[in-house]
């Protein structure tokens, strides 16, 4: 139906007759001449209906509206002087219409199909087919395609096999709620949609296939946010006979190639390597944004010599006092500081203490500190005249989390975060276990198939079972062969070297207070496989949606997913989730008893 795409009409086509198809992007009448910008996926080109060339065509053009689908035949000519649009690839030329056909009309639009829109998210997703016409969203979809194409090509070049794993599988505890699927042929039993292909990809390694990958949908029934969806896509991989550094090297190489082929960006700096404890100490987060400084400083040892009760009480309860230097923020008014305090309290802190660095320290709490302590604080925070020292005192986890979020906010306020900059980091040496305060027991920080570091194996096997419910247990010191890759403050992937021997896997379940019967019920098919010559193996999963979001500069992973769910895990386009027919429930041997 066309000889050229709209975006292909350039100076090379001047003097030729072309046929193009697309949507009416804009319609305007300038002094009796009608101009239309015709748009398809490749771009847009200006077409001209002139009464001097054809009066009837010009008259018919007045019936065209935005988003009408047109087929146009016309001659390509140079735009008149003064009308050239240098911001468009087709801005040097225009198509003078000789004939056209309205292939389809369009109802009045619920919102304009432009890059900038004030339409609500729910309205955009209800009419997602219109939202997807917006050039910016199409750009995201095209970039996602290019990234996936590049990923596949790289993994194929490294002898990975693309192998599918089941979508209907067994419910296993992996950190989030499963999406359950009732079985009609086995009444009262349920499949689960996979939170990840973890167990199956390990079994593929036992099978001797050595290098597996899959670009795969995963499902987690959890509370949503801008970088989460109930169904999301992973670049999943597993390798046999590898160390942690082998996996990291492959991922580094792959990401370099993807950025070059997708964005034409050369990643020349190797990713920073930080242990988990280094990241938490310096940034308060295991996914730090390294595009700017503003590192956190533990000042507990300095403030213990003060008489400030808030700090002293926190330290006496095993908490900590940490601070950040707000560069050039000493001019903040009391109202500004109160607003900042409320923001930090919204993160979970009890409050925010502050000291302005001027000729002398200005602060309501300065009187509680000896001069030598004030001097020590400014030195540790490298604070100069005009800076603002900000302090949080609380439990270690709360302090780190609140100051990490404050650090990111200050990075934005102080314009320290530059667009188009990509700072990667590998976070390693994670704790194997984390303590669940509510349930008074230890849980796996990643998942229960993560191998301990070799240096910690003796403690792993010898730690006393009586310590399983003690928050000060030796379990806290055990480190995992786990690693996360972080980009610009987002975790974009994570993995580990896996446990490949059954005795170590049994011990892991014991330390997690999972007895043999429960372990066999939930993971029996993996545990048995480990007894049949399982090789050493490890892997990683990259979050494709999150990676593409960062690469495109989109504000949410929903913008880079063709048909996303809202923050309430609903699809306004299809009205899912929806009620089902009573007969369907009967076939599944189900009866609803909804608790209000």
Structural class: alpha+beta
Shape: globular
Find the count of extended strands (DSSP E, 2+ residues). 22
Our estimate of the beta-strand percent is 15-25%
Q: What is the topological layout?
A:
Layout: E1 17-30, E2 33-40, E3 43-49, H1 55-61, E4 69-78, E5 93-104, H2 121-126, H3 128-131, H4 135-157, E6 161-162, E7 179-182, E8 190-193, H5 198-206, E9 211-219, E10 231-240, H6 244-263, E11 272-275, H7 276-283, E12 297-298, H8 300-303, H9 309-316, E13 320-326, H10 334-347, E14 353-357, E15 361-362, H11 371-380, E16 388-394, H12 396-413, E17 424-428, E18 433-436, E19 441-444, H13 457-462, E20 482-487, E21 490-497, H14 502-511, H15 516-529, E22 537-543, H16 544-552, H17 582-587
Parallel strand pairs: 3-5, 6-9, 11-17
Antiparallel strand pairs: 1-2, 1-4, 2-3, 4-5, 7-8, 9-10, 10-22, 12-13, 13-16, 14-15, 14-16, 17-20, 18-19, 20-21, 21-22
Explain what this protein looks like in three dimensions.
- The chain is an alpha+beta fold.
- 30% of the residues lie in helices and 24% in strands.
- Strands 6-9-10-22-21-20-17-11 form an eight-stranded mixed beta sheet, sandwiched between helices. A five-stranded mixed barrel has the order 1-2-3-5-4.
- A hairpin with a 2-residue loop joins strand 20 (482-487) and strand 21.
- Helix 4 (135-157) crosses helix 6 (244-263), helix 4 (135-157) crosses helix 16 (544-552) and helix 10 packs across helix 12 (396-413).
Describe the structure in brief.
The protein is α+β, with helices and mostly antiparallel strands and 596 residues long.
